[in-house]
Backbone:
């Protein structure tokens, strides 16, 4: 295709003319006016020196300018009409407008014209010898050479010297890497450290002292494997690992961006993900549900609904709701979806190819629009009536056997609510008139407003009490009809448009500048195979299947991406640390054979997430101590080779859940909606004072994720920004974190609850026993003698001080202050 | 449209986690914002980016007075005799360069305009106090932007873009200049809006988290009741809390000894000290009790209807004095006059006129105005056409902002709109141009103030923006 292979139209050039024009004045004009313009506005896409030759055109040498690009001669000295450059900057032809982002000022256009009229003068040395055109980075064929697109490379176990060390395949690869660099692995972590690490990484909660004790006293060889299996089967596993996917799915309970409307039904999707992870739904199947659950066959209403809810993935992104142009919005929504799918599943920055061929990765613009056609053949928005107006909102579909009937009835109410309220008001007015016995007024009212006065009430022959009763009955009906009905169960679900169609390339990414149409399809860097997409469907089902198709689709790439993510979550760093970018600007894998082996295992296990987690956690590598080693640090300061375990800071969910767990106030029951009390506006603005609550005793994964109004603990401790897919959360050290831990009421409440527990549970009461209780419950270790002394001294001195300050219950408060200190300590917040 | 989606390259922040050598200095710098950010090069001291300033700065800080909702430019700063003459007539699209035939019925401004100061800057009668500062103002009448709805326009005003999450102006300033005062954030936003983008309007997006604006209260809360979250402990005396902190740090150091060298533990230790210092510094800056009665009166503190905005402006001055780089002050969502634009403009101007004039006067006499750029404006203006009988609709096509101090050319009126105030006529200034100009005044080149994210260099103005040199002295 034309945009992929650069076709050069080399015109015969009257070089003599050009040179003749090269008076000093002409060259000065070029240097003063033209070259700065070219550099400023053109070279970004048309420069050999910058390696950009869009449309085959370069403008940074004299001959290249004369040669032009695919469309023809760019500059024909002395001839304005034959110079495409002039046509382009004049913006006269809608198909040829440059620069694409913004028209040049009139004075600049005049300068270009003058320059061409002068014979396009330029200095000699400007005519640098043209390098052989290299293939564009976006070329899909050449792109197959990039490591991430190559087939998985099977490799045997590497030879290692310390043959007694490895336990699993993983260990062989890691050990081989260490030995090749003259390093050796750290010791195994002690069992207390190991079980704490494993609990947090698998279920996001600390082990109780009883669970620790059980493991410590379990002398079976496979004691640890038993713990791992137990955790994999625990419902808390899905709450921890489902959240990893929710980060990628940019899950949120509100739209964010310009108009922060509530996503009242988003929680169904969240809970579906948690359930799917707990059920270990194979990843290939999982993705089909994400992208096309609404298109899957079903045997029951319940199954249909669950499948539909899963497809909420496409609907849940943030959207500019009051943007001006519907066409622009459609392209923006498709872009947001492709960006999410590209990064989350393929580890590719597809969005870069929206405006131009990808500058680094093998993704031509045509491939972007091939995928975009699938997304724009899918609807995720609909017109709804809300807050008194017709709006374009996220698409909702009713659930249950009644599905659309209840949804339609509900929507109808909101369209008519003003009328219904007016009718109730008039009905009540009629009642007043009846009381006053104003027959004329009543008649008048009945004529003006049909159906608000009961026939019997209007009948003057009837007895007043009967008339009153009749009207009261009618008013009751009217009032009932005017009250908002209960919100029916609904879900955010995409749907295919009536007539799926291919999409046109948009020039410079601008929605209103269509270029050539491209057939809906997939990335050509993955394979040349032609996929037939159905004419009457969007093609989402086929796309979902292609993503994990190992034979003809992107299965190998998707497997590498997922295996790397699982490694990242368990080990603290990815084999490729840029987990959302396995493209050319991403990092190379530290252990390429290991990554391929893990990816292959993922595929072989029928895409089982739990199987791969088990494989990695039971490796000796996972169990490495995080102890420092000066020599190894010298050789490998970033610990890329894994000579030790990485220390990991608790994320906000684990931090909060662990505090509540120790406090004894954490309720492990799964939650449905935690935003049902909010109105249509998810944030407090103007008259709406209603704001999300965070005081639920549930696990953090169920707390409201309001875009732009996250729970404080999320905001402060680097929760994923739910506006965009996030595989690697930021890890910051900022003062607000210190302030939160030191001063937040919920932290102090948890500390106080923990203190109350220890005062009751340590029997017979002893201060030393209490210190032990604190350490065992909060940090999973026994205190050293030093630490014990420090805590005891602190508790005594603080109690005394509090007593002198007149604080009530000084002993409890003193212990609470000590528990609080341990929450704030690195031992609690950072996993060894 | 720039390319806009990116990978997570391993940022310096990630490197911090992994390099143990020399971490302590680096961590502290990272937390206090003292260090350079570019290419992982750490410097100590107060500077922001290593190569900053790009050119001699005219201002060291900015105070942005944000009038949420969109004041009507033709009722405040942009007098239109033609509009007055044609009151009640249709505005023909052709007369203002619009494709639409009729744009609506024109509504004359009910207010009297006059020229003020030696320079003769025009202002309506709604700003009796501000008009006495006229020679300090550089009034730009030809602003234009995109976004017909508040949310989009607010995001463009604060971050330059609406459909993607981008760092806000203050975050860029913090990133570029670092902190003057290590115990205070570089970017503070007083009473920010919770809606229309909310925190996104003072967010750091992909810039390191320390560049996020620190919020004091929010727009709907009177500033006298507002607080910075967790800036102080409601249960423990400072004596007990200090002891507690000592215990925490003792435990942390023991952990660190055991671990030998760990950047995360070291970072945590340094961070608690910083938090504690911030906790003692910030409330002092926020205490207005030390101000003289004369100063309080100058702003209109404790007076009706100026009290709330006066307190905000006075706080802004105190933060400016203490070395905060970017301070935003926001009104509540009260300038959106779809009805009763006359009454609304009177009410809202009365709330802010005296506090703003007081702020300029106070900054001036303290010598702060020389290097503090004050900017006044909103997400858009309002139509010269009537809406709902006596109101005006949103109007991003043309509106007014003004600057004062910090290198702004005082007593100047720059750019113009057509006879109706509908579209810019002379020297249009796009919001991107305004952003470029603000950065320029601070010594920052908007094209060179970039952040490498996802394989690409991002900047506040994306691929747009021209510095309006003529408004700077």
Residues:
């Amino acid at each position: 295709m034309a945009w992929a292979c650069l076709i050069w139209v080399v015109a015969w050039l009257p070089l003599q003319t050009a040179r003749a024009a090269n008076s000093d004045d002409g060259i000065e004009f070029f240097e003063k006016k033209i070259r700065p313009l070219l550099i400023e506005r053109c070279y970004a896409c048309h420069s050999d020196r910058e390696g950009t030759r869009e449309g085959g055109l370069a403008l940074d040498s004299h001959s290249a300018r004369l040669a032009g690009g695919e469309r023809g001669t760019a500059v024909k000295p002395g001839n304005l009409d034959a110079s495409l450059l002039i046509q382009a900057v004049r913006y006269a032809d809608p198909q040829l407008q440059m620069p694409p982002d913004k028209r040049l000022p009139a004075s600049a256009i005049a300068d270009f014209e003058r320059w061409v009229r002068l014979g396009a003068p330029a200095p000699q040395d400007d005519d640098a010898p043209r390098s052989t055109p290299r293939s564009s980075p976006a070329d899909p064929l050449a792109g197959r050479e990039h490591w991430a697109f190559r087939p998985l490379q099977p490799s045997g176990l590497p030879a290692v010297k310390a043959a007694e060390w490895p336990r699993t395949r993983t260990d062989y690869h890691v050990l081989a890497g260490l030995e090749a660099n003259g390093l050796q692995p750290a010791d195994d972590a002690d069992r207390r450290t190991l079980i704490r690490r494993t609990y947090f990484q698998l279920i996001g909660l600390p082990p109780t002292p009883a669970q620790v004790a059980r493991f410590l006293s379990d002398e079976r060889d496979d004691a640890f494997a038993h713990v791992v299996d137990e955790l994999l089967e625990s419902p808390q596993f899905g709450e921890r690992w489902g959240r990893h996917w929710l980060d990628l799915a940019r899950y949120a309970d509100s739209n964010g961006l310009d108009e922060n409307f509530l996503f009242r039904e988003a929680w169904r999707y969240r809970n579906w993900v948690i359930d799917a992870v707990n059920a270990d739904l194979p990843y290939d199947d999982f993705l089909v549900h994400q992208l096309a659950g609404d298109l899957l066959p079903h045997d029951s209403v319940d199954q249909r609904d669950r499948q539909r809810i899963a497809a909420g993935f496409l609907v849940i992104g943030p959207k500019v709701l009051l943007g001006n142009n519907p066409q622009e919005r459609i392209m923006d929504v498709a872009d947001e979806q492709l960006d999410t799918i590209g990064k989350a599943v393929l580890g590719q920055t597809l969005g870069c190819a929206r405006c131009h061929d990808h500058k680094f990765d093998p993704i031509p613009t045509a491939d972007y629009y091939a995928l975009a056609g699938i997304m724009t053949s899918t609807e995720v928005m609909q017109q709804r009536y809300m807050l008194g107006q017709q709006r374009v909102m996220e698409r909702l579909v009713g659930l249950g056997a009644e599905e659309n009937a209840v949804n339609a009835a509900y929507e109808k109410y909101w369209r008519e609510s003003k009328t219904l309220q007016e009718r109730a008001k008039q009905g009540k007015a009629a009642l007043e008139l009846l009381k006053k016995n104003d027959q004329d007024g009543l008649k008048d009212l009945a004529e003006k407003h049909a159906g608000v006065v009961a026939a019997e009430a209007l009948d003057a022959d009837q007895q007043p009490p009967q008339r009153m009763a009749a009207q009261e009955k009618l008013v009751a009906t009217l009032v009932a009809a005017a009250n908002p009905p209960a919100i029916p169960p609904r879900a955010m679900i995409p749907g295919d448009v009536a007539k799926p169609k291919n999409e046109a390339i948009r020039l410079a990414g601008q929605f209103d500048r269509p270029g050539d149409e491209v057939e809906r399809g997939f990335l050509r860097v993955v394979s040349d195979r032609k996929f037939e997409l159905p004419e009457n469907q969007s093609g989402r089902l086929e796309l979902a299947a292609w993503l994990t198709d190992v034979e003809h689709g992107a299965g190998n790439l998707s497997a590498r991406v997922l295996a790397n993510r699982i490694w990242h979550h368990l080990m603290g760093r990815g084999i490729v640390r840029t987990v959302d970018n396995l493209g050319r600007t991403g990092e190379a894998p530290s252990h390429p054979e290991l990554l391929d082996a893990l990816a292959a295992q993922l595929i072989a296990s029928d895409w089982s997430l739990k199987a791969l987690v088990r494989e990695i956690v039971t490796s000796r590598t996972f169990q490495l101590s995080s102890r420092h080693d000066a020599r190894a640090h010298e050789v490998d300061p970033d610990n890329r080779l894994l000579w030790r375990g990485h220390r990991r800071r608790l994320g906000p969910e684990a931090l909060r859940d662990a505090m509540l767990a120790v406090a004894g106030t954490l309720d492990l029951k799964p939650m449905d909606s935690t935003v049902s009390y909010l109105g249509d506006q998810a944030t407090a603005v103007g008259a709406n004072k209603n704001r999300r609550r965070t005081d639920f005793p549930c696990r953090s994964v169920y707390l409201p994720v309001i875009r732009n109004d996250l729970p404080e603990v999320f905001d402060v401790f680097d929760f994923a920004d739910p506006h965009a897919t996030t595989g690697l959360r930021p890890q910051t050290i900022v003062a607000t974190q210190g302030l939160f831990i030191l001063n937040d009421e919920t932290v102090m409440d948890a500390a106080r609850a923990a203190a109350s527990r220890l005062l009751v549970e340590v029997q017979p009461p002893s201060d030393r026993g209490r210190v032990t209780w604190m350490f065992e419950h909060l940090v999973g270790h026994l205190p050293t003698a030093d630490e014990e002394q420090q805590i005891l001294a602190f508790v005594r001195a603080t109690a005394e001080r509090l007593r002198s300050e007149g604080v009530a219950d000084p002993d409890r408060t003193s212990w609470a202050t000590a528990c609080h200190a341990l929450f704030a300590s690195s031992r609690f917040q950072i996993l060894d | 449209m720039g390319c806009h989606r990116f990978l997570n390259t391993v940022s310096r922040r990630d490197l911090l986690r992994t390099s143990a050598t020399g971490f302590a200095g680096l961590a502290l710098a990272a937390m206090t914002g003292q260090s350079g950010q570019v290419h992982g090069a750490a410097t100590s001291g107060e500077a922001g980016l290593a190569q900053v300033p790009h050119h001699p700065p005219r201002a060291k800080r900015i105070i942005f007075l944000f009038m949420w909702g969109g004041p009507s430019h033709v009722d405040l700063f942009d007098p239109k005799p033609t509009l007055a003459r044609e009151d009640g007539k249709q505005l023909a699209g052709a007369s203002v360069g619009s494709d639409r035939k009729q744009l609506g019925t024109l509504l004359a401004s009910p207010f009297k305009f006059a020229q003020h100061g030696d320079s003769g800057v025009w202002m309506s009668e709604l700003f009796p106090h501000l008009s006495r500062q006229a020679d300090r103002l550089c009034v730009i009448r030809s602003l234009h932007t995109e976004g017909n709805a508040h949310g989009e326009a607010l995001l463009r005003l604060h971050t330059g873009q609406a459909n993607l999450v981008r760092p806000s102006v203050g975050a860029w300033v913090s990133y570029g200049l670092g902190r003057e005062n290590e115990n205070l954030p570089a970017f503070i936003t007083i009473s920010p809006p919770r809606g229309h983008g909310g925190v996104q309007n003072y967010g750091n997006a992909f810039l390191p988290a320390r560049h996020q604006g620190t919020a004091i209260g929010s727009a709907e809360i009177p500033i006298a009741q507002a607080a910075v979250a967790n800036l102080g402990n409601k249960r423990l005396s400072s004596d007990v809390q200090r002891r507690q902190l000592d215990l925490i740090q003792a435990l942390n150091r023991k952990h660190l000894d055991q671990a030998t060298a760990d950047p995360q533990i070291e970072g945590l230790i340094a961070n608690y000290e910083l938090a504690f210092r911030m906790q003692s510094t910030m409330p002092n800056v926020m205490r207005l009790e030390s101000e003289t009665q004369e100063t309080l009166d100058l702003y209109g503190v404790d007076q009706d209807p100026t009290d709330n905005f006066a307190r905000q402006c006075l706080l802004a001055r105190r933060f400016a004095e203490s070395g905060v780089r970017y301070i935003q002050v926001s009104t509540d969502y009260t300038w959106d006059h779809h009805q009763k634009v006359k009454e609304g403009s009177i009410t809202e101007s009365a709330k802010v006129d005296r506090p703003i004039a007081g702020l300029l006067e106070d900054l001036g006499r303290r010598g702060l105005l020389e290097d503090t750029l004050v900017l006044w404006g909103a997400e858009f203006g309002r139509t010269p056409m009537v809406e709902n009988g006596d109101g005006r609709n949103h109007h991003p096509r043309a509106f007014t902002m003004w600057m004062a101090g910090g290198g702004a050319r005082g007593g100047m009126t720059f750019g113009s709109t057509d006879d109706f105030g509908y579209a810019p006529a002379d020297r249009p200034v796009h919001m991107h141009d305004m952003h470029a100009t603000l950065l320029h005044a601070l010594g920052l080149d908007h094209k060179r103030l970039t952040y490498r994210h996802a394989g690409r260099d991002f900047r506040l103005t994306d691929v747009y923006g021209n510095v309006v040199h003529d408004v700077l002295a």
In short: DSSP finds 33 helices and twelve strands in chain A. The CA atoms of residues 272 and 722 of chain A lie 18 Å apart. Residues 1-21, 128-133 of chain A have pLDDT under 50 and may be disordered. The radius of gyration of chain A is 34 Å.
